[in-house]
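This section describes the prediction task in plain terms. A model, or a person checking by hand, is given the sequence of a single protein chain and must write out its three-dimensional structure as a string of tokens. No templates, partner chains or ligands are provided. The sample shown here is typical of the held-out split.
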Amino acid sequence: MDTADRVLYHQIHPVKLGTDLVAELVSLPLLWRRRYRTGLAVHFLPPIVASAVVTRWTNDLERIRDSPAGRYVRTEMTPAMQAVRLAGDGLTIVGAWRRRPGLVALGALVVIAGWTIGPRAAPSARPGSRRLMNLPMRDRPGPDRR
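The expected answer:
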């Protein structure tokens, strides 16, 4: 598995997802209480460390790649959807910083949308499209790859 694949699939590794969730849940109350340095450090540093650990020292990313979640990430988690998730995360930070629960909730909804909606309706997500044709042979959908 090359580096680009490891970076893509580490996003759904249980350690990475758990670290992201805990960092979010701990950092937002800190930001709300105006503990900016601590809140931002808790928000960003643990996920960066978890990403480094998961992408470099775990061997189960191939198992994740071959799972239904891996197939979803391969087809739906485009750079645009990752940007949507990042924008939602930014909204939660700003919402906590400004003590606006509605903005925190909106940010959380944007993150959830970035994970669940995906570009399904976009032409590039249909079989036979250019995006799918650029996949390596082992990743292309076909009669024996369901």
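For orientation: Residues 121-133 have pLDDT under 50 and may be disordered.
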